[in-house]
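re: ur question from yesterday

yeah so i grabbed the chain u mentioned. its 263 aa long if i counted rite. heres the sequnce exactly as i have it in my notes:
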Amino acid sequence: MKLVSWNVNGLRAIVKKGFADIFESIDADVFALQETKLQAGQIDLEFPQYTSYWSYAQKKGYSGTAVFSKHQPLQEIHELGVPELDLEGRVVALEFERFWFVCVYTPNAQDGLARIDHRLAWDEAFRTFCKNLEQGITPASGRATSAKPVVMCGDFNVAHNEIDLKNPTANRGNAGFSDEERSSFTTLLNAGFIDTFRFKYPSLTGAYSWWSYRGNARKNNTGWRIDYFLTSESLQNAVIDARIYNEIYGSDHCPVGLTLEVH
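ran it thru and got these structure tokens back, copy pasting raw so excuse formatting
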């Protein structure tokens, strides 16, 4: 099963840059998007064989997530169940027969860590949400389900370790590489999830998924790896490959992918 995730940094903008051709050429079973930056009815985007599922922020032109799937889910969830955290359309969760698929766009801590408290509250609620899904517990809006593993993907807005960004020393303490965010991500992994890319390529350097638009960062590969596929530890043996599509342009992020063997 081929799974792909991409922070498109504005879906309406990237559609003008050949998004449809990229989408069709990748031919994923499930394709997740973050930072769609639109409301319902603002785009007409359909693909044969796929059904789409959308979460929208209350604020126009902000945040937003979506998932296109060839497989019909048993149910869909669009919130964590925490009202103050569910205003920005940051999650789409789909229950499939063998696993939960969760697309997430994690809040940015912002310059000077101005939003770090909100960010850490999100991390805790999201971790609880995913662990509950593993145990068959859904928010009030979802129906009861059996326990099953979780595959989560998206822009987690954190470079976990020094290997995950070009200039760790200069960025230590900044948003996306603060001790608080890195520790929170460690807590998520320690809750029973694996970073599939590092599982397959533990020592590969220069592997990034986001580059600033400034200073020729992408040309010089001065990047950060902040886009991930994580899976429940029980799926470890099902992980065939994880990759970063750094040859694909159109956003300040590139897509990331996971090949999973599930029956």
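noticed a couple things. The chain has a mean pLDDT of 96. also The CA atoms of residues 114 and 214 lie 22 Å apart.
anyway ttyl
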